[in-house]
Amino acid sequence: MGNVVLDSVVKIYDKKRVIDEVSFEVKDKEFVVLVGASGCGKSTILRMIAGLENITSGEISIDGKVVNDVSPKDRDIAFVFQSYALYPHMNVKENISFGLKMRGEKKDVIEQKVKEACEILDLTEYIDRYPRELSGGQRQRVALGRAIVRNPKVFLMDEPLSNLDAKLRVQMRSEIKKLHKKFNATFIYVTHDQTEALTMGDRICVLDGGKIQQFDTPENVYNTPANTFVAGFIGSLPMNFFDGVLMGKENVILGVRPDKMTCGKDIKFSAKVDTVELLGSEKIVYFSYEGKKCCAKVSPDYECGENINIGISLDNIHYFDKTTGDRM
């Protein structure tokens, strides 16, 4: 069983809590994505699970066993780094097999595992090449191959696609998801890219300031964000926020997704257009309203001049407490 449990985990650097009482469980064979802006603590959590960082307090368990004092090599995990971390003087075969040789695996076992990994990752024709002779995507697949041959209970991936171009990132997202299904193992994946989080994770852990803001399915995180931070962070475009009054007395924050800004007749207003971006299948209109910068996603044939006419349905409004920012 490859379940991973964090119980009240704290990490303190220079008297500052960078991870603050974090608790969650990743179920066996689940694909969980840790997502947040730079400095939110997501990579630190991953490194603590791997044993590459000591925890200040709390417990981390893998497969029901507390691993606080267990060395990384004995945790039955595989770590895929952002930088690939390939040995430049070793070819593809040698890079993939290095960990197995260090563990004392038999030569014929190593040969078979490397062969299977190269076939899965479409690396067979590159097996004798060195990292300098490979593209970014091929290097990333070598790093994945090195993890695959270990057949671990848990795969840990720290922003593995951030060095790739946009088109290749989309392709590699699909390949990693296929690997998850094929190996039926637990995957914990770190990214700052919310699109990766929404498209890859069975569940998403949204982090900010070393604390969990929401841990839920992609659908729930997007459709029912727990607070204004999650609402503003998750989505290809940030949610628009407005000041409002609920039931004539309670001050609230109203949130509306950009793709719902021209859908409805309950609330209507006009605003001055700042800029317009045409993205092929859609058009993004940026405008100002009551001193706030907002945007709307509309069809490419939508006509807008100096002003945009907004119509919002009450069904598309999210309500947040003005003091705490929590969903109401």
Write the layout of secondary structure elements.
Elements: E1 4-13, E2 16-26, E3 31-35, H1 42-50, E4 57-62, E5 65-66, E6 77-80, H2 92-102, H3 107-120, H4 136-148, E7 154-158, H5 166-183, E8 186-191, H6 194-200, E9 203-208, E10 211-216, H7 218-223, H8 228-233, E11 240-246, E12 250-256, E13 267-278, E14 283-289, E15 292-298, E16 307-312, E17 318-321
Parallel strand pairs: 3-8, 3-9, 6-7, 7-8
Antiparallel strand pairs: 1-2, 1-4, 4-5, 9-10, 11-12, 12-17, 13-14, 13-16, 14-15
Helix pairs in contact: 2-3, 2-4
- Mean pLDDT, to the nearest integer, reads 92
Structural class: alpha+beta
Spatial extent as radius of gyration:
23 Å
SSE succession:
EEEHEEEHHHEHEHEEHHEEEEEEE
Q: What's the helical proportion of residues? A: 25-40%
Query: What is the 3D shape?
Result: globular
Number of helices: 8
Largest sheet: 6 strands, mixed
Instruction: Detail the poorly predicted runs.
Output: none
Secondary structure: number of strands? 17
Reading side by side through the largest sheet, how are the strands ordered? 6-7-8-3-9-10
Give the terminus-to-terminus CA distance.
38 Å
SS strand fraction: 25-35%
Provide structural commentary:
By secondary structure, this protein is an alpha+beta fold. Helices cover 26% and strands 34% of the residues. It is built from eight helices and 17 strands. It has helices at residues 42-50, 92-102, 107-120, 136-148, 166-183, 194-200, 218-223, 228-233; strands at residues 4-13, 16-26, 31-35, 57-62, 65-66, 77-80, 154-158, 186-191, 203-208, 211-216, 240-246, 250-256, 267-278, 283-289, 292-298, 307-312, 318-321. Strands 6-7-8-3-9-10 form a six-stranded mixed sheet, with helices on both faces. A four-stranded antiparallel sheet has the order 2-1-4-5, covered by helices on one side. Helix 2 packs across helix 3 (107-120). The two termini are 38 Å apart. The mean pLDDT is 92.
